[in-house]
Amino acid sequence: MKRLGPGLVLALVAGFAFLYLPIVALVAYSFNGSRLVTVWGGFSTRWYGALLSNQPLLDAAWLSLRLAFVSATLASVLGTLAALALARHGRFAGRTLFSGMVLAPLVMPEVITGLSLLLLFVSLDIGRGFWTVTIAHATLGLGFAAIVVQARLARFDTSLEEAARDLGATPLVTFFTVTLPLIAPGVAAAWMLAFTLSLDDLVIASFTTGPGATTLPMRLYSAVRLGVSPEINAACTLLIGAVALVVICASLLLKRERFARG
Amino acid sequence: MKPGSRFARLFPAIPYLWLILFFLIPFAIVLRMALSDADTAIPPYSPHFQGVSELGAFLSALDLENFRLIASDDLYWRSYLTSLRIAALTTLAALAIGYPLAYAMAAAPRRWQGVLIVLVILPFWTSFLIRVYAWIGILRPDGLLDSALLWLGLTAEPLRLLNTEAAVLIGMVYSYLPFMVLPLFASLQKLDRTLLEAAADLGATPSRAFLSVTLPLSLPGILAGSALVFIPAIGEFVIPDLLGGPDTTMIGKALWTEFFSNRDWPLASAVAVVLLVVLVLPLMLLQRARGAAA
Fold first, then answer.
1. Which of A95, A97, A107 to substitute to test the interface with B, most B CBs within 10 Å?
2. Looking at the domain assignment, is residue B245 inside a domain?
3. Which of A192-201, B80-89, B240-249 is modeled with the greatest confidence?
4. Looking at chain B, which terminus has fewer C-beta neighbours within 10 angstroms, N or C?
């Protein structure tokens, strides 16, 4: 491959500067000693200290983490099953409807998904709170998880499964000893994607939550509406750090798996 | 795995039932709600349609009042048009910024490409809210952008972009750019570069070769990226709410206000139904682009 021309290097630099400068500025100002966002008051970690005594924010963060954990687990199990169904069952009744329903939540405006799920919960007379948001997030994550797992299944050597069956393994044993270990990195990546989607969601959670279940994005949103403050910057920086860690772990996991394949 | 085994048959059943219950049925309820009257009761609606047995009565009393209101009220018309305009401008701007980026990524040495893709995806994984918040700090009066421009002497007075349509556009392009870049990159990477060499051998200038070879071959990526940006952008709520002003009421925000502030659930549902109808065309386009890519 020949070297990139100056125009292409410029496109790369400008594109990534656009993507990253706002985040860099946000992180930098979380270490600002001054409360005024426009004035640089020297390096300080005081806003991180202030975060630790902000009990409502910490409660919301803890709730969001538990919620993301449960909904991501549900989403990756359901998404894996959906991906297996789409990849392995050539035709079944309502396949078009099924694949449509798996993919639709990916692009559906969140206000519609949120509103429709809320109306369902109200019709069924289900008390709104932790579990209704969990169900909503699991439904949202299902489609994303299915796509990630499906990509892994597409490169899967089915003769391994056939060999296990020929050697007398039941379908259940085959699934747990052959299929699942081979698609495990995909399932793990799907879980992480569903986890961050849930951690990130404001709109769907606002519609489907009830009293006493205020998630972290909902707290941040009401704080952001009041204006910019270095404490929010500090909270955002911690979140960015956490997410970056998860993404780097995920990509290392996928890379190691690629090396293992040779 | 034999498709005939009972275990295998369970695979589609569980997520299928889940999606019917939590995706399909809710839409039917939204449609029913859209045809109800607003009521002060909690939940605030009085449904016109309780069950199949009442279908006849329901059809005769079909209430299009909410849709009539949407059609007659200036506010909704303008919100839909604003949403369409902002979503279209966002798509064009994302294409203008994303295409050179994706092109350069596809032309980069292969060992860099993995890192470059992670770099494009990484901001997408950080919270949406955080990315919008970052722009508030940049665009607000006395924010980083105005300070930098004044310091450089490029502008005589602050631009004060926050709470304008320009701010909404910047926020939208920023948030949705990865959705444009990734499909573009996928189609540009697959492009057979010997075709460009052939075009050059036959005497085509680089720009001619780009227009008659690269651009048509990357069309599936352009279509997929545009649909992936346009569809969610049109119903966007957070960005116009935090970066926009009174002139930039998009339909997602109108729905939100109708639901949370005015507590008019039937009207909010009717707004959602009309929004879905608007989205049918771009959704079909996306489906076709996916078909072409496969």
1. A107
2. yes
3. B80-89
4. C
Tokens 């545009």 — which residue? Answer: B226
Residue B228: its chain A contacts at CB < 8 A? 107
CATH value at residue B190: 1.10.3720.10
Residue B261 CA, chain-centre distance (Å), reads 24
E strand spans, chain A: none
Tell me: the pLDDT tens digits for A96-126? 788 888 888 777 888 899 999 999 998 888 8
Name the domain count of chain B.
Answer: 1
- Closest listed residue to residue B293, CA positions, set B186, B212, B216: B186
Residues B106-128 pLDDT 10s:
888 888 888 888 888 887 777 78
ipTM, interface predicted TM-score of the complex = 0.81
- Do the Cβ atoms of A22 and B8 come within 8 Å? no
Q: Is A165 in Cβ contact with B1 (below 8 Å)?
A: yes
Instruction: Report yes or no on B239 lying in a domain.
Output: yes
Q: Provide the token pair at A89.
A: 């069952």
Q: Where residue A136 falls among pLDDT bands split at 50, 70, 90?
A: very high
The total of other beta-carbon atoms located within 10 Å of residue B107's CB is: 20
* Extents of the domains making up chain A: 55-227
> Of all residues in chain A, what percent carry a pLDDT higher than 70?
92
Distance CA B217, CA B46 (A): 53
- Maximum CA extent, chain A: 72
Strand partners, B37: B46
Whether B30 and B269 have beta carbons less than 8 Å apart is answered as: yes
- Helix A6-29 crosses helix B128-139 at what angle (to 10 degrees)? 90
CB B180 within 8 A of CB B152: no
Chain A environment of B174 (Cβ under 8 Å): 18-19, 22
Q: Which of A73, A44, A50 is nearest to A188 (CA)?
A: A73
Chain A residues lying within 8 Å of B255, measured CB to CB:
111-112, 115
Question: How many interchain CB pairs under 8 A, A with B?
Answer: 247
User: DSSP state, B61?
Assistant: T
Q: Which residue of chain B is at minimal alpha-carbon distance from A158?
A: B1
pLDDT tens digits along B156-211: 777 778 888 899 999 999 999 988 999 999 889 888 778 888 888 888 888 888 88
Domain assignment present for residue B66? The answer is no
B133 Cα to chain A: minimum distance (Å): 7
Compute chain B's Rg from CA coordinates.
24
Contact (CB, 8 A) for A19 and B120: yes
Q: For residue B142, give its domain range.
A: 75-293
* Contacts A161 to B, Cβ<8 Å: 1
**Within-domain flag for B204:** yes
Cβ–Cβ < 8 Å for B29, A116: yes
